[in-house]
Amino acid sequence: MRYDLVVVGGRVAGSIAAYHAAKKGLRVLMLEGNPEIGTPVQCAGGVSDSFFRSTGIKPLPEFTCTRIKAAAINGPYGASITTRNPMIRGYIIERKIFDKYLALRASEAGADVLAGSRVKDLIFHDGSVSGVKFRGPDGTHEVESDIVIAADGIQSGVGRRAGLDTRFRPGELCSCVQYEAAGVDVDTETIEFYFGSRFAPSGYLWVFPKGDGRANVGLGVRRSSCSEVGPLMYLNRFMSDKGFKRIEFNAGAVPVCGPIERTFTDGMLVVGDAAGQVDPLTGGGIHVAAECAKIAGEVAAEAVEHGRFDGKFLSLYEKKWRSKVGRNLERSLRFRRALDALDDEELDALLRSVEGKNLSSISKISLLRVLKDYPSMLRVLKDIL
After folding, report:
1. 48, 206, 317, 385: which has the fewest C-beta neighbours closer than 10 Å?
2. Residues with Cβ within 8 Å of residue 140, at least 6 apart in sequence
3. In a shared domain, residues 231 and 375
4. What is the pLDDT of residues 201-251, one digit of tens each?
5. Is residue 330, in this structure, part of any structural domain at all?
6. Which is nearest to 85 in space by CA: 73, 71, 98, 95?
7. pLDDT tens, 73-85?
8. Phi and psi of 204, rounded to 5°?
9. By the 8 A CB rule, do 168 and 162 touch?
10. Which 3 state secondary structure label does DSSP give 112?
11. CA atoms within 13 A on the CB side of 289
């Protein structure tokens, strides 16, 4: 078998890259290692309006659960603020259905999609990646291609086989656990966040309502900062305190250190979690992955059109995605590090200093005055604002 492009990984990044490449006329094969696209779930499911605007995807009722209009931020000692900033607005989506929708969209654009197919090795011609070897439901296959896009998640084995450093150290990863919970009595238009060492050391806890008394309730922590105690202990304690019922459990890891140094080589591009294309502050990766995946698919099409699969040509992908989202990722990383410098007392005091204020309309000058007692946070906000 031969294709113009093989995409390894069939979640958001893989499906969107496959869609845009197929739409440009490439013969595309997308391989997903899990037997079912969309499972296991490794996401809280929050997607902003800006995601749908930038991708052109409609928030269809088959995969949207609730409309989100506000966010409540809770401190370790009871301080709480609620914002209705337009940037918060979006939807809680059902990832199992959404991921399948994206894969179907790629298929309808012309891509071949194979689930239950794990890449075991790469094919090289003259030092350039030129295809993959994979094991599918019906045995082992070799597929040659002009380009391979690695969208196979954190610690990308495909990227490493091509000589790229896709590894993340433990302190650069957030260990995440999540329940789909029942018996949840919360405002269905408001997502909730809990900060502080009581809830999630070096991370945060979330409650994302899905309607009908259900919610995704989870948390992420950086394990190097919370000794031997794992994230599940904190989540189970919160669930018990709230009286929530557990109906599904998922776990995973998210890179929160910023992108890897190099996301291309001869015959290969790396995208999504595999490339560390995740917001370091929120751990959110859907929107960033979508932006970068679109660029990857389009650059792959340009490469095929010009017959250029060398790293020099494919570096265009990295130039474009860093120009599009790189500055925002750098700001988020600095903001997260500033938050890390605050202890529980400082964090709660910071929230209390803006408690009761209309955060969606607070002026930049007023916000900077509020933060005068928090030098590290102030330096970052001056840069951002």
Report:
1. 385
2. 120, 133, 134
3. no
4. 889 999 999 999 999 999 999 865 445 578 999 999 999 999 999 999 999
5. no
6. 71
7. 999 999 999 988 8
8. -160, 165
9. no
10. strand
11. 31
